[in-house]
Amino acid sequence: MKRVTSRILTLFIMTALCLSLVVAQEASAGQGDRDKLFGFAEALFAERDYYRAITEYKRFKYLYPVDVLVEKSDFRIGECYFKAGRRAEAIDFFNAFMRQYPAGALRPDALYLKGQAEKDQKRYTDAMTTFNELIRTGGVNYRDRALYAQALVLLAQQDWQSARESFATLPQESPLYPSAKLYSDGLGRMDGLPRKSPALAGTLAAVLPGAGHLYAERPRDALVSFLLNGSFIWAAVELFRNNNNVAGGIVAFFELGWYGGNIYSAIGSAHKYNKRIEDEYLQGLKDKSGISLYRDRTGSHYIMYSMMF
Amino acid sequence: MPGRLLWLGVKGFRETIGAVDGDRCRMAPTCSAYSLQAIETHGFFMGILMTVDRLLHEMDEMELAPVVMVHGDARFSDPVSANDFWWNNAGQLDKQSFMSNLATQEP
Fold first, then answer.
1. Interface ipTM
2. What's the CA gap between A114 and A126, in Å, rounded?
C-alpha cells in the first residue's frame, strides 16, 4: 500500500513538473509574441511604412488590450497619421487620445503634434490654443517648444511683428534660443527688404501701360502690355478720326479691359515681387535655423534639437 | 447675370474654338480654365481684370512659376490663388504653403 502511494506521489510530482514546464514555456512564448508584435510595428514605423504600422499597432491593441504599451500604440497611430500627411485624421485621433489618457505620459507629445497638424491645416487659431494648453500643462520641458511653435504659427500668418516678439520670449538657456534669436533678429530686418510699391506700380501703369510691369522687374510683360494697349488705343483713335464711331467704340470698349487689366496686373506684379523677396528671405532664415527633432531612446519623446549655423 | 454670360462666353470658346485650336497654353491651369475659375470665384468685373492680367503676365511668369506635370506635359503653375492673394484672404492662405513648412523638420 505504501509502495503504491509512493508511486502515485512520484507520478503526481512528475506530472506537475511537466505541466509547469509547459505553462512556463507558453507564458514565455506569449511574452515573446507581444514583444515581437510591438517590435514589428515599430520597425514598420521606423521604415515610414505608416499604414501597415497602423494595422500592427491596432493588432497589438486587440491582442493585448490592457498592456502597458497600449497607450504608446495609440499615440503611434496618431503619429502615423501625422507623418503620413493625414493631418485631419491625426487631429481627430489625438483629440480622442487625450480624452482616453487625460493624464498620460504622452499627452504633451500628442498636444504638440496636434498643434503642428492644425498649423499645417492652416487652422491657426486652433493651433495657438493647442500650444497655449501645452504651455500651461506640459511642464518646463515642453514650454519652450510650444513658445517656438507659436512663433512659427504667427510667422505662417505673416504677422512678422508678433512672431518676432514671440521668438524673443524664449529664455537664453533654452536649446531653441539660438534659432529663436536668429529668427527674431532676422524678422527685425524685414522692413529693410527692397520692396516695390504696388501703388506706384499701378500709377505708372495708368500713366503709361507697361511702365508698372517694368518697375516690378517684368520687362517682357511690360512689352506685351505696352504693345497691346498701344495697338488698341491707336486703332480706336484712328477709327474715331475716320468717323467710324461704332467700330471705334467697340475697340475702345475692349481697350478699357486691357487698360484696367494692365493696372491690376502691375499692382499684382509688385505684390508678387514683394512676396517673392519675403519668401526668399524667410527661406534663408529657415535654412540657417535648421531645427531638427530627435527622439529619446524609447522613441516616444522628442527631446533634442540640432541647429546648423 | 453679367458674370454668368461672361462665363458662358469663355466656356463656349473653350468647347468650340479652343477645341479646334488645340491645347497651346503652357500654364496650369490653361488661360481659359483660369478665366472660368476667376469669374466663378470673383464675378464679372474682377474676372475680366484677372483674365487680362493672366494674358499679360504669361511671359515673365514662365521664368518664375514652379513647373508642374499635367498629363505628362510640363506646365507653369499659375493658379488664381497666386494672383489674388494680395486682396483675397482665402487666396492668401493658399499661398502660404511655403511658410507652413517652416515647422520643425524631423530627420
1. 0.81
2. 9
